[in-house]
UniProtKB/TrEMBL annotation:
Reaction proceeds by a ping-pong mechanism involving intermediate methylation of a conserved cysteine residue. Keywords: 4Fe-4S, Cytoplasm, Disulfide bond, Iron, Iron-sulfur, Metal-binding, Methyltransferase, rRNA processing, S-adenosyl-L-methionine, Transferase, tRNA processing. Binds 1 [4Fe-4S] cluster. The cluster is coordinated with 3 cysteines and an exchangeable S-adenosyl-L-methionine. Pfam families: Radical_SAM, RlmN_N. SUPFAM superfamilies: Radical SAM enzymes. It is found in: Cytoplasm. S-adenosyl-L-methionine binds at residues 171-172, 203, 226-228, 302. One of its GO terms (cellular component) is cytoplasm. This is Probable dual-specificity RNA methyltransferase RlmN. Gene3D superfamilies: 1.10.150.530, Aldolase class I (3.20.20.70).
Length: 375
């Protein structure tokens, strides 16, 4: 049950929670099953659509629950057919989600996979220096319903099924552990959205204690680490979380993960010119990837307005990749889709909230120079 006066989103409720509501209302158990079917199988957008529920029951539910917690405010598409969705929440704030087709040439037809990059928070408290999500700070966690609804909204708009999820949008998923894991259970369940656990990846900036906690989570989801620095010297200056959970602590947590799981880990590594794209960084990354039995996704930096970073040349990118592959590391270089639609996390939301006066235009307080410290 919700502990606030805000209506609770039905997309974030499990069947046993819905059954408890109907028991409280003095309704027979089969009514709860009807509601679950309307919410998840039929994707009813309003209680009024649930015509086999008595009108009095629908009215009683409407005082406490909603079928939708957000609306699509804007959709931007790119030349490579990646689409970014700006979603307006009930409290007037915004989050983003990005739909990425596996094969752009097949967009609008059959495709092997549709990946959705899902947000878990409004803003972010972790202040990674290359990312727009945290420029205006942290506002709040998303509820389980708001997380699940991102998939429902995008599928309804696109007319396509999403079958692969990555929690790599706005926010740090493991800082919203209870809502994210509840959403994953709903997304995975046969009565829910029905996405396979192995088709869901949680990406973290390196919250070591929560990584251990997630390792004990029963569903066989995948884990990605936003690494972006293979030594503490470099990572400290890019990712402030490293000062609390350094690489030694992070890799101790990854050892625990590997004891519990059989899937490969993934290291996400954004390449930033003259910051972390040196060949010594590549060599250090290769050692760490081998030690953790991890594959590496290299991603050239995606320009963010207001930040000074630039992406390396393609020759530098290729040289970095060659060091990894020559060391026997499974690695890919993803010259990302969506660069022309501001697809880096948080950019579209930041622009919208600034224009509406919800937040002041954030100006980065400091610039980072590797080797010279914060300037």
């Amino acid at each position: 049950m919700s502990t606030t006066h805000e209506p609770q989103g039905l997309l974030g409720m499990k069947p046993e929670e819905i059954a408890a509501v109907f028991a409280e209302l003095g309704q027979p158990a089969f009514r709860a099953k009807q509601l679950v079917e309307w919410v998840f199988a039929k994707r009813a957008a309003s209680l009024e659509e649930m015509t086999n529920l008595p009108k009095a029951t629908r009215e009683a539910l409407a005082t406490r629950f909603v079928t939708r917690t957000m609306s699509i405010a804007k959709v931007t598409g790119s030349r490579d057919t990646t689409r970014k969705f700006l979603l307006k929440l009930r409290d007037g704030r915004y989050v983003e989600t990005v739909l990425i087709p596996a094969n752009p040439a097949l967009y609008g037809g059959a495709s092997d996979r549709r990946t959705l990059c899902v947000s878990s928070q409004v803003g972010c408290a972790y202040d990674c220096k290359f990312c727009a999500s945290g420029l205006a700070g942290f506002t709040r966690n998303l509820t389980a319903a708001e997380i699940v609804e991102q998939i429902v909204q995008v599928e309804a708009y696109a007319g396509e099924r999403v079958d692969n999820l990555v929690f790599m949008g706005m926010g740090e998923p493991l800082a919203n552990f209870s809502n994210v894991t509840k959403a994953i259970e709903i997304l995975n369940a046969e009565w829910g959205i029905g996405i396979g656990a192995r088709h869901m990846t949680v990406s973290t900036s390196g919250l070591a204690p929560q990584i251990k906690k997630l390792a004990d989570f029963p569903l066989q989801i995948r884990l990605a680490i936003s690494l972006h620095g293979a030594t503490d010297e470099v990572r400290d200056q890019i990712m402030p979380v490293n000062r609390k959970h350094n690489l030694a602590e992070l890799f101790e947590a990854l050892d625990y993960w590997n004891q519990k799981r059989k899937q490969f880990l993934t290291f996400e590594f954004i390449l930033i010119a003259n910051v972390n794209d040196s060949l010594p960084q590549a060599q250090a990354l290769a050692k760490r990837a081998r030690s953790a039995n991890a594959k590496v996704n290299l991603i050239p930096y995606n320009t963010v307005d207001g930040l000074d970073w630039v992406r390396p040349s393609e020759a530098s990118q290729d040289a970095f990749l060659a060091v990894l592959t020559n060391a026997g590391v499974t690695a890919t270089l993803r010259r990302e889709k969506g660069h022309d639609i501001a697809a880096a996390c948080g950019q579209l939301r930041l622009k919208q909230e600034t224009e509406l006066g919800i937040i002041e235009s954030p100006i980065p307080a400091k610039r980072i120079t590797i080797g010279g410290g914060a300037g």
